[in-house]
Amino acid sequence: MSRLAVALLAVALPLIAVAAPENYTIDPTHTYPHWEANHFGVSNWRGRFDKSAGKFTLDRAAKTASVEITVQTTSVSSGDSDKGSRPRSLDEHLRTPDFFNVAEYPTMTYKSTGVKFNGDDPGTIAGNLTLLGVTKPMVLRVENWKCQPHPFNKKEMCGGNASGSFKRSDFGMKFALPAVGDEIKLWIQIEAYKN
């Protein structure tokens, strides 16, 4: 009987290991949230945040996952950081209470509340975005998801692209409405290494 138990355990252990959740830490040098807002109805104004951190858990066998990302709002970048002869650059203005109010709210966060899979990969992430001290639900759609060993350092990695949108006025960011659009489109490319 003990031989049978040992044999069953030997067969079951690899299956248990495969089904176990895997934890990943986001690579900040390859993970940048990008945003877009309409500017005076003329063009779409784009920028990004240069500093973010986070983690996610992925159980491909059980088709469950969770994600948490923290973005440094102080790292907002529109491409206009040189004020020249103006009182301030656009990046400086974005950091004021008119927009991100980084002195009071130096970070914004996104925490998942549920993940739906599309086949073997995460497809839709429901979660909460916290910005300017206000938390609202936001859905992200995942594209191009892939897990593989990194081609150079051989560490196990996963990553992809996700996108969603929100109204900035829902978070109290109302400066220059409606000239500067209310709807903010958000994209984020994520690369992360298995812990």
Can you characterise this structure?
By secondary structure, this protein is mainly β. The protein has a single domain, classed as Lipid/polyisoprenoid-binding, YceI-like (Lipocalin), CATH 2.40.128.110. Helices cover 12% and strands 52% of the residues. The chain has helices at residues 2-19, 90-94, and strands at residues 22-26, 32-39, 43-49, 52-59, 64-72, 76-77, 107-118, 121-131, 134-149, 156-167, 183-194. Strands 1-4-5-7-8-9-10-11 form an 8-stranded antiparallel barrel. β9 and β10 (156-167) form a beta hairpin. 18% of the residues are buried. The model has no long low-confidence stretch (mean pLDDT 92).
Structural class: mainly beta
- CATH architectural name: Beta Barrel
Shape estimate: elongated
CATH superfamily: Lipid/polyisoprenoid-binding, YceI-like
**Average pLDDT rating:** 92
The residue ranges in which pLDDT falls below 50 over 5 or more consecutive positions are none
- Largest sheet geometry: 8 strands, antiparallel, barrel
* Computed Rg: 21 Å
Order of helices and strands: HEEEEEEHEEEEE
- Content of β-strand: over 45%
Total of DSSP H or I helical runs spanning 4+ residues: 2
Q: How are strands sequenced across the largest beta sheet?
A: 1-4-5-7-8-9-10-11
- The share of residues in helices is 10-25%
Oligomeric state of the chains in view: single chain
Find the CATH topology: Lipocalin
The end-to-end distance, rounded to whole angstroms, is: 38 Å
Number of domains: 1
How many E strands?
Answer: 11
Which CATH class applies here?
Mainly Beta
